[in-house]
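Appendix B, record 7
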Amino acid sequence: MSLPPAQQSTSTAPPHEGPTSPGAQELVDAAETGEVVIGLKFGHAGRNYEVQVPEEDRVGDLKALIFSLTSVPPARQKILGLVKGKLPSDEAVIHDLALKPGTKFSLIGTPLGKEFKEPEVPPEIINDLQADYDYTSAPLTKRAELAHDARNVRKIKEMVAKLRLGETLNVMNEPREGRGLLVLDLDYTILDTKPATSGTLPTIECARPGLHDFCRAVYPYYDIVIWSQTAWHWLESKITELGMLNEGMGYKIAFILDRTSMFKVYSERDGASLYNRTA
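Structure tokens (predicted):
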């Protein structure tokens, strides 16, 4: 495929990937969904924190909350004293931990930006096209439970609130009146992700054939959005290398959505715990 030469790319600024302001979370009260909230306390790096955690949340949600307060990513968090023995997995429900109000625990972990050196590791990306699980095969009652789960409903409201506050949405080109919205998935849709992230092939050679011609063809009718389950710096890097932010391409990207606009949905598959990110 013949591609236009690379030109000066449009500058972008990442959405907030670190600790978020409390604004969006304050807009969504767990009481609205009838949930019970438990107060917990923890200490980290000489500081004490108090948090309110809905009992329908998962351990993974608690880790995300801790990250928002301390800048310690979940993968680096060592939580001591919350429960006896080993901390349950991320999908464990807070209610099932039988915590008492005011339970205290300690956090050990290095905040982002404070590490001696952080290795650059390509993100784990799920190839949806190779997924062999048919979610529609799940019983209707189970699907209804997921759709009406109090935690899931609240998480959707939190994501919408963050988008409205601009915490996870970076508008690069204002949406045009009267146009539709076309959302393109980066991973394994417009980009063959595996050879691109492994370095086997240059990113530009991993683009879907006809990518730029397609975008030019639909641009008069649709504003274009790029979405990815990866972190912002990976997403921005790949679309820049694809030339999608270059001037004079005949189309413009309205905005980009990365994993900060998503949350985990927990379920089961063949009796085993399963989670997936949804936006």
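Remarks on this record: DSSP finds seven helices and ten strands in the chain. The first strand starts at residue 37 and ends at 44.
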